[in-house]
């Protein structure tokens, strides 16, 4: 057995989309990081396909937006639109689902839809351009440990060669069975197994024709009373007539040779050609790490939280983990982040996922279950149609209500109502702890590239704010001033808006009474 040892500032275990996003975030700050990834090529299974406007902001910040969009396998016009149907996909009742266009004006770019493996390829290409990032494909992490001096990850490749990486910090982006989480001694809060689900990947020529009544729609959710709220959902993967399909099945299905085509046909409401390419199974359950940090070790993405793939939250939540942790690690390693800054990663991100789980995914399952138990068009068509119309209206509201924020965070100087949550409301007004709309409504301004260039940004209307910049400079905190006009000031509702490197508002107001204290809290030198 041979081996070698390398030294880095951060070691990332897991080079999937979240790990690569974090590596880019750190690499663009000049932080040396090593990525350990067991797969030489991305896993060719269509998942993580719905990328929100906020995720595409990350792609823009990481210099990869156009590459991601270029990897889209669906033609223009087959957008990221969804549809919920009752009974069968071809049935009488349906409405638009996940209408993210409703919140487009609060973000700097459009949402996108493409398989995770296509996103990963674009991220891998970008990582290869960053000299401070080294990626080790084909290596499986076997042991993770930490001490007061640093962390150590031991990995092995297919030949048996051993690689040992020493670093100041380690991050587990290695999925729900995370080796780093295990090595860090971080437990999980897990729900019991609820339901076995099957994933089918297949090709079909006729299915395209059958769903032609819904042009521009690429994913579909079919509710059926017999399924008690569990979803059947299917969607297009590419222009080559490839589709995916998830549905609940009995546990015994994983151990038997079952023809799953009738399951598909019942969901759609017609028989059609099916050429199966992949059959997989997954457990429908929630898992949440008991904490996101233990000493020098952190978890992100599925290593920190996992859930049923309902609503497209998973990959998007993971990218936000990366953006939140990335700037805080960089600030700490560069010497301007305070001793409390890294703790704020757990304080901000863990409650957001708990809220996503409870207020959106679990609630959605229960709402569907209650609806199906209470309404049946064969029994009372009028009551059913009224309730169905109410569901359609609520679906549009839900997209706007999903607004992860950090009110109550220990590093948000203004405090706010708190605690951090995924449940909020979209506004152009600048609010402490909330994402800032970089293209403020009613203006022709786009501030995003300035907000995403690293460090803090003070958006200023007028002549005040010099004392805040001076306080940051005295504390060696990188900050840039961006002057804006009265139209932006009116949209944001404040003369001054201090924006963090992850485009979240640290503070907003017309005058700053104690600039030193504000800066100290925002970078974790003190906590509120």
Automatic annotation (TrEMBL):
**Key word Flavoprotein present:** yes
Question: Domain FAD-binding spans what residues?
Answer: 8-354
Q: Which domain of life is it from?
A: Bacteria
**Cofactors (names):** FAD
Mind telling me which Pfam families this protein's record contains?
A: FAD_binding_3 (PF01494), Rng_hyd_C (PF21274)
UniProt entry keywords in alphabetical sequence:
FAD, Flavoprotein
Among SUPFAM superfamilies, the record links this protein to: FAD/NAD(P)-binding domain
The record's GO molecular-function terms, alphabetically, read:
FAD binding; oxidoreductase activity, acting on paired donors, with incorporation or reduction of molecular oxygen, NAD(P)H as one donor, and incorporation of one atom of oxygen
Alphabetical list of PANTHER family matching this protein:
BINDING MONOOXYGENASE, PUTATIVE (JCVI)-RELATED (PTHR43004:SF19), TRK SYSTEM POTASSIUM UPTAKE PROTEIN (PTHR43004)
What is the protein name given in its UniProt record?
Answer: 2-polyprenyl-6-methoxyphenol hydroxylase-like FAD-dependent oxidoreductase
Q: From what organism does this protein derive?
A: Blastococcus colisei
């Amino acid at each position: 057995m041979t081996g070698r040892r390398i030294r880095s500032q951060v070691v990332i275990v897991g080079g999937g989309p979240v790990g690569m996003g974090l590596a880019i975030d750190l690499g663009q700050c000049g932080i040396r990081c090593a990525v350990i990834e067991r797969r030489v090529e991305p896993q060719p299974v269509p998942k993580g396909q719905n990328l929100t406007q906020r995720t595409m902001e990350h792609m823009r910040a990481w210099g990869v937006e156009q590459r991601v969009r270029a990897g889209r396998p669906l033609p223009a016009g087959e957008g990221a639109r969804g549809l919920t149907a009752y009974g069968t996909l071809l049935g009488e009742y349906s409405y638009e689902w996940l209408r993210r266009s409703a919140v487009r004006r609060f973000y700097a770019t459009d949402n996108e839809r493409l398989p995770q493996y296509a996103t990963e390829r674009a991220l891998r290409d970008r990582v290869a351009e960053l000299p401070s990032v080294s990626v080790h494909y084909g290596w499986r992490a076997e042991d993770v440990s930490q001490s007061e001096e640093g962390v150590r990850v031991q990995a092995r490749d297919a030949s048996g060669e051993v690689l040992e990486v020493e670093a100041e910090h380690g991050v587990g982006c290695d999925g729900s069975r995370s080796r780093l989480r295990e090595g860090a001694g971080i437990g999980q809060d897990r729900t019991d197994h609820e339901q076995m689900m099957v994933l089918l990947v297949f090709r079909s020529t006729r299915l395209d024709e059958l769903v032609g009544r819904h042009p521009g729609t690429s994913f579909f959710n079919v509710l059926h009373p017999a399924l008690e709220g569990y979803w059947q959902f299917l969607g297009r993967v590419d222009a080559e007539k490839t589709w995916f399909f998830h549905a609940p099945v009995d546990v015994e299905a994983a151990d038997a040779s079952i023809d799953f085509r009738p399951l598909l046909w019942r969901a759609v409401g017609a028989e059609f050609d099916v050429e199966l390419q992949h059959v997989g199974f997954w457990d429908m359950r929630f898992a949440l790490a008991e904490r996101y940090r233990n000493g020098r070790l952190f978890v992100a993405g599925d290593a920190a939280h996992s859930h049923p793939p309902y609503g497209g939250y998973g990959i998007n939540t993971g990218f936000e983990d990366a953006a939140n942790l990335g700037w805080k690690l960089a600030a700490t390693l560069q010497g301007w982040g305070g001793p409390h800054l890294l703790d704020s990663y757990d304080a901000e991100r863990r409650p957001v996922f708990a809220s996503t789980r409870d207020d959106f995914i679990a609630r959605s399952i229960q709402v569907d279950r209650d609806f199906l138990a209470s309404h049946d068009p064969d029994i009372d068509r009028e009551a059913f149609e009224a309730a169905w119309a109410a569901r359609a209206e609520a679906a549009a509201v839900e997209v706007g209500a999903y607004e992860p924020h950090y009110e109550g965070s220990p590093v948000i100087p203004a405090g706010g109502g708190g605690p951090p949550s995924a449940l909020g409301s979209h506004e152009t007004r600048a609010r402490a702890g909330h994402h800032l709309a970089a293209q403020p409504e009613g203006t022709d301004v786009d501030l995003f590239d300035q907000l995403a260039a690293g460090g803090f940004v003070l958006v200023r209307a007028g002549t005040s704010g010099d004392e805040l910049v001076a306080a940051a400079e005295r504390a060696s905190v990188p900050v840039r001033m961006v002057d804006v006009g009265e139209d932006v000031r009116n949209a944001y509702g404040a003369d001054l808006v201090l924006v963090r490197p992850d485009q979240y508002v640290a503070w907003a107001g017309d005058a700053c009474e104690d600039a030193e204290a504000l800066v100290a809290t925002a970078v974790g030198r003190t906590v509120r």
